[in-house]
Amino acid sequence: MKGKQSDIQELAGFLERKRITNSKIVLAGGCFDIFHIGHLDYLEAARKLGDVLIVGVNSDESITRIKARPPVFQAKARTAVLAALTVVDYVFEFGEDTLSEQLVRLRPHIFAKGSDYRDRWFPEMEAALEIGCEIRIAGEAKISSSSQLRHLLAPERRRQ
Questions:
Q1: Which NCBIfam families match (predicted)?
Q2: 126-136: per-residue pLDDT in tens?
Q3: CA–CA separation, 69 and 42 (whole Å)
Q4: Model confidence over 103-128: pLDDT tens digits?
Q5: What's the pTM value of the predicted model, to 2 decimals?
Q6: How many CA atoms lie within 13 A of 100 on its CB side?
Q7: Which one in 17, 74, 136, 151 has a CA-CA gap of 20 to 30 Å to 67?
């Protein structure tokens, strides 16, 4: 693989080789629209759960469907920011609304969800349980979000 950014097919083959060495694989994911301290906390905590941290990033189209608005930054920029982080081993973009298909394809040992999912059902839960993947909550209590930052930075708020 070239660099940290990869496509799902290439990544699946790479992870098969990592399993041979008994490396514990962790999968995390999200929109990462406006990167903030909460994202960093989540990824650092997820990295501590295993040997290899793979991060799935929602495509621009999936963010538009999920959030009913386009992303602030395009997927190419969001994946580049994540790839620059030392805690992240590999990054891929996915077009679905959830990571369920990628969980089944990549078969990580651990699926890390952010602290905002503590005590909550999430859409990938069934897929994670189906493949025997451990589900872990990573990071401290959520203190900020891209939506909050977007609202604070909105042009109409700056005029006040």
A1: cyt_tran_rel
A2: 999 999 999 99
A3: 24
A4: 999 999 999 998 877 777 788 999 99
A5: 0.86
A6: 11
A7: 136
